[in-house]
Specification:
With 480 residues, this protein is an alpha+beta fold. It contains 25 helices and 15 strands. Among the domains are: 148 residues, Beta Polymerase, domain 2 (2-Layer Sandwich); 83 residues, Hydrophobic Seed Protein, CATH 1.10.110.30; 59 residues, no CATH class.
Length: 480
Amino acid sequence: MPEEKTYKEALSHKVFEYITQAADNLSLETYAIGGFVRDYFLQRGDAKDIDVVAVGSGIALAEEVAKLLPHQPKVQVFKTYGTAMLRAFDLEIEFVGARKESYTEDSRNPEVESGSLEDDQNRRDFTINALALQLNKSSFGKLLDPFNGLNDLKNQIIKTPLEPGVTYSDDPLRMMRAIRFASQLGFKIEEKSLDAITTHHKRIKIISKERVVDELNKILSSPTPSIGFGLLRKTKLLPIILPELSALQGIDEKEGQRHKDNFWHTLEVVDNIAKNTDDVWLRWAALLHDIGKAPTKKFHKKIGWTFHGHEFVGAKMVFSLFKRLKMPLNEKMKFVQKMVFMSSRPIVIAEDHVTDSAVRRLIFDAGESIESLMTLCEADITTKNPKRYKKYHNNFKVVRQKLKEVEERDHVRNFQPPVSGEEIMKTFNIQPSKEIGIIKSAIKEAILDGEIPNEYEAAKAFMIEKGTQLGLTTNETKNV
């Protein structure tokens, strides 16, 4: 990391010319602060948003910048918070007046009053987010780092500017943000700070479900999500936020028989899948794929520990969990449910002789999600035995090859019966009835079992045969 005290190169984007001009026009002491500055020192690529703090009116500064910009963008003003936002050069820029804050016990929304830059830096969540670069022409690029945040970046430490107990109690969402940054950046949370999170963990209850889920999504989207979820467990936040996941922890032993710790196994699965997909909903499926094991766990003397039906129970739990956390109850939730419900299907096929019929049914049931399901099941291989690990992966290679061959031949994905209900009614001259459903279902089962090919003529002949068995007669027969 650079050692000099001014960092003009961090402010090379053209937008800063306009912000500097506007700040000097209004004689406002102005700084870039927060994530933009932090990420510059971390060399984390191009910024998408910039936070600007002015010692004075951030709204006035935003409006002045908008006047100077060639396209004069619209300024969105949030008077309640004293902030404003505009878009320029594919960037989202938020302006705020420097402020100090005070909190009440039951809310994370502070009482706000104008303050100095020092006041504003004091209210920041972490030292690495309190770094500020001056934008005024006279001191352009000057770094203001009152809490040695640059040093904490070098040492990969997350700590608070003020006493951590105050910081976390004031705004408990910062507890999850600390854990999220640890997971995203691979940083360590300072021990004193970690202890404070544990002490104040119950304060997370005043945070809205939407805010909590936003942080959970960011933890899940990090390169190694287990870091975040391990810290949520360590700080006692997990049982409050995701009790279904917390319930998986621990190993029971009876008569010398033990089962694996399904909590730590789950985190291994999530880390495995994170290497192969950025799809946060598939990562959610990995996180929740075993939640049905806690309520279905039983011990039998002859066979040991079982978790019968855990996929079915887990899929039902997904709905309750999503509803409680105010997550979307749409196709995203249904996708996670489907993945949890089907999570063992490819494993069973891989362990047995791979029949075309079993593969056809797997493709039919998974539909467009078949690739996601296979990715999840491969991530579920966490054995430390090299021979078993290789064997399981080789088995899945066989299943994948079978999937390809069967789909190319039988076209089962997004299956539509070759014979429609209308044709069944016309052939037998009948009105809508249960017999139509019976015939359509029989055709589907015959195709999936390989009794007939997925072709019109074969399906039509089977339809007539099945209808005859049900006592129906075709128009041709009636005319004889």
